[in-house]
Amino acid sequence: MGGEAGEERIKIGLEIHCQLTNLRTKLFCGCPADYRGSPPNTHICPICMGLPGTLPSPNKRAIEDGVAVAIALNSEISRRMTFFRKNYFYPDLPKNFQISQYDGGGGVPLARGGYLDIEGGKRIRIRRIQIEEDPAKLVHEGTIGDSAATLVDNNRAGVALLEIVTEPDIEDPREARAFLEKLRGILECLGVSNGELEGAMRCDANISIGGGTRVEIKNISSFKEVERALAFEITRQRQLLARGIGVRRETRHWDEVRRITVSLRAKEEEEDYRYFPEPDIVPIEISEDFIESVRRRMPELPDQRKERYMREFGLQEHNAELISSNNALWRLFEECVKMGGDPIEVSNWLVGDLISFTRELGMELTDPRVSPRKIVELVNLIRSGAISTKIAKDVLMESLRGDESPEEIVRRRGLLKISDESLLRGIVEEVFRENEGAVKEALRDEDVVNFLIGQVMRKTRGKADPKLTYELVKRNLERIAHGEGPSA
Amino acid sequence: MGEITPEDLERLCWLSRLRLSQEEKEEFLGQLNKILDYFRRIEEVDVEHVPPTYHVVDLTNVLREDEVEEPRPDEVLELAPRRKGRYILAPRII
Ligand SMILES: [Zn+2]
After folding, report:
1. How far apart are CA A47 and CA A49, in angstroms?
2. At residue A5, does pLDDT exceed 50?
3. Strands B87-91 and A115-117
4. If you ran DSSP here, which 8-state letter would residue A418 be given?
5. Domain layout of chain B by residue ranges
6. ipTM of the complex
7. What is the pLDDT of residues B38-93, one digit of tens each?
8. What is the C-alpha to C-alpha distance for residues A192 and A20, in angstroms, rounded to an integer?
9. Do B64 and A41 touch (CB under 8 A)?
């Protein structure tokens, strides 16, 4: 404790909650799970409201979803899992307890262990995966300070959540974000959770610096905010340590508006939740057959896809990683390859200019204007030598803006590359006549050669074949050097 | 495990959101310690070779298909003691 400036290792562990948005009903009752946009308290029934005499029964599909995620995260699936009650009093729990799972006191969660490798090959270990219910949504009238009551909407209460807890293997906020993005890609690929929906994926984080006290940050409502919240918390803890003040063990709340973390309460000790086995739900046995049937129905996962792209198409690891982990990109890539586009060139365009151009234009990659046909035409135009790479960039940008295909744009604007030698020779001579001083310098200085080539490009508005232009310029310079006329 | 102290009782009250009078506290403290004694006696039984029981019925996998049952929310909502529109009112938190 205190302000010892020693080893400054940052350790971050994440606790992710994602709603299983592919379920039609809640975790333990038949209420519709899709609560978004519904009037308050319309998706409620005696079971999710915890009325006496009701019996919750687990949604089979939620177990299947959980098993699929556990397989994808290389976790060990429990053969017999149990549900526990987590007791606390808060208006967001209609029953005054949450039906959850517990890795202790004889409780067995859905899965333990596992890992996820993030970009760069770093491995983040998973501690456990469990299934539990989402609490209700609270609405505070007026400002938090002066509202007299809390309004409770129970439509969300009882919606199925998957809780994924990592080991504290993450060492900086960027890694946290990379992990979450990769996880999100997997969940979306499996079709179990849609991160586009507000509040579908939330995150709590534990963080300690230099082996010091662990602080928990709650209420990070989206994966994007995680990086920011962690960066703030690191600065805060460092400042405390620098001033010789110890970091207090506590739970802090991420204030998205003010972009700071604020102290919430002294952390309730774990035993305060008084976990005990849920008497209304019998244990669930997960057989090898069940796991196999889930595995058979699973789509290709991002990492498997990445390996395949490297093996089958010879893609670079960086391209393969980027494309395979983005649903819009890999679909586009596969369409392009199916249409005969060269895989390596297609991949270069996708991860390079396509991503940055669409970002610049504020377009989604799923926009219909981003069509595989456009990419394939572009790649083929370059391959056949019809246009230069430089022109191709303009053509792509223009094509993304509207409905015209690259071929149509090239034809309409007359952008075909000038690779006709006699035509280009004339232009080169013109440049030489207009830049006599530069020509003399170019005989000694290679950089000035590039200037001459640049002039040819300017005159042809980038259409001159770069290779041929280089050859012609060099040939002319050699002739001058040998005392011959500029052209033969 | 020792006795339940008045401090333990305070904490239990806080966790359970209960407010007790001084008389009640004295009364319950005695009762709680009796309950604790009772468990202490149960603990004397040798259970080393008995597997733990987490559930009293010998069933597994009582699951439900993911099919919507149209809820009748108004019948449930009517039971809430305080409401505002379709919201349920709870005491102010934070
Ligand atoms: Zn319900």
Report:
1. 5
2. no
3. unpaired
4. B
5. 6-43
6. 0.85
7. 999 999 999 999 888 878 888 999 999 999 998 889 999 999 999 999 999 988 76
8. 5
9. no
- Secondary structure of B33-46 in the HEC alphabet? HHHHHHHHHHHCCC
**Cα–Cα distance between A396 and A102 in angstroms, integer?**
54
**CB of A332 closer than 8 Å to CB of A322:** no
Dihedral angle at the C-alpha atoms of A271, A53, A160, A94, nearest 10 degrees? -60
User: In which element (H, E) is residue B69 found?
Assistant: none
Residues of B within an 8 Å Cβ radius of A: 15-17, 52, 54-57, 59-69, 71-73, 76-77, 79, 82, 84-94
Residues of chain B neighbouring A41 (CB-CB closer than 8 A): 73, 76-77, 86-88
Nearest Cα of chain B lies from the Cα of A285 at a distance, in angstroms, of 6
Residue A41 contacts B, CB cutoff 8 Å: yes
What topology is assigned to A421-481 in CATH? Arc Repressor Mutant, subunit A (1.10.10)
* Alpha-carbon span A321 to A118, nearest angstrom: 10
Out of B57, B73, B88, closest to residue A42 by CB = B73
Radius of gyration in angstroms for the set of CA atoms belonging to chain A, rounded to a whole number? 30
| More confident: B36 or A269 | B36
- Top residue of A101, A143, A150, A262 to mutate, by most chain B CBs within 10 Å, is A150
- Per-residue pLDDT tens for A422-473? 888 888 999 999 998 999 898 888 889 999 999 988 888 788 888 888 999 9
* pLDDT of A2: 41
Interface touch B91/A31, C-beta < 8 Å: no
Annotated domain spans of chain A:
10-292, 300-413, 421-481
Instruction: Produce one character per residue of B16-25: b if its CB has 16 or more CB atoms within 10 Å, e if not.
Output: eeeebeeeee
Q: How many CA atoms lie within 13 A of A67 on its CB side?
A: 25
Summarised one tens digit per residue, pLDDT across range A224-247 is 889 999 999 999 999 988 888 888
* Crossing angle (nearest 10°) for helices A421-434 and A446-459: 120
pLDDT at A271 over 80: no
pLDDT digits (tens, 9 = 90+) for B25-38: 999 999 999 999 99
Taking the Cβ of residue A106 and every Cβ of chain B, the question of whether any pair is shorter than 8 Å is answered with: yes
At B47 the three-state DSSP class reads coil
Q: How far is A195 from chain B (nearest CA, A)?
A: 21
Does the pTM of the predicted model rise above 0.90? no
Main-chain dihedrals φ then ψ at residue B51, nearest 5 degrees: -65, 145
Cβ–Cβ under 8 Å, residues A242 and A248: no
Q: Please tell me the distance between residue A279's alpha carbon and the centre of ligand 1 in angstroms.
A: 19
User: In terms of C-beta density within 10 A (0-12 exposed, 13-18 middle, 19 or more buried), how is residue B30 classed?
Assistant: exposed
> CATH classification of B6-43 is 1.10.20, yes or no?
yes
CA A172, CA A376: separation in Å to the nearest integer? 39
How does pLDDT run across A124-172, given as a tens digit for each residue?
999 999 999 999 999 877 655 555 788 999 999 999 999 999 999 999 9
